[in-house]
Amino acid sequence: QTSAMKLAGRAKAEQSCVVDTLLVKIRKLEAEINANHVALEQLRREKVDLENALEHEQEQLFNTLGKRMDQLEAEKRFVSMLSLISYICARICAIFMLSYVINSSFLL
């Protein structure tokens, strides 16, 4: 063989080696891209699940808060009623005491 043919053969072998190396790298990158797509889809599903869980928790908190506010409003009305009853009782006692004093003074 001539040196030109040997050189061409070596160049072809080197080119083939470079192509094979690049193909291996391309396949690895394609596999990595596919794995990243799978991971991305998993993250998207997890995001949706977390958003749904958050929405559910917010609804529960809102409902709990609403019930608590209703309970506090009922307690406030109860305390107001007790205050009014206490005021009325005090007025009635004052009237009875005044009536007693007036009646007692007439007896003297």
Q: Please, could you describe this protein's structure?
A:
- The protein is mostly helical.
- The protein is 97% helix and 0% strand.
- It has one helix spanning 3-107.
- The model has no long low-confidence stretch (mean pLDDT 95).
- Keywords: Coiled coil, Membrane, Transmembrane, Transmembrane helix.
- The chain crosses the membrane at residues 78-102.
- Residues 26-60 form a coiled coil.
Question: Strand-residue fraction?
Answer: under 5%
Supply the number of helical segments: 1
What is the chain-wise order of helices and strands? H
Q: What's the story with the biggest beta sheet?
A: none
Supply the helix-strand structural class.
Answer: mainly alpha
Share of helical residues: over 70%
* Poorly predicted parts: none
Backbone CA Rg = 46 Å
How many extended strands? 0
Calculate the terminal CA-CA distance, rounded to whole Å: 155 Å
The residue-averaged pLDDT reads: 95
Report the principal-axis shape: rod-shaped
Pfam family, one: DUF2046
Transmembrane segments: 78-102
Keywords: Coiled coil, Membrane, Transmembrane, Transmembrane helix
InterPro entries: DUF2046 (IPR019152)
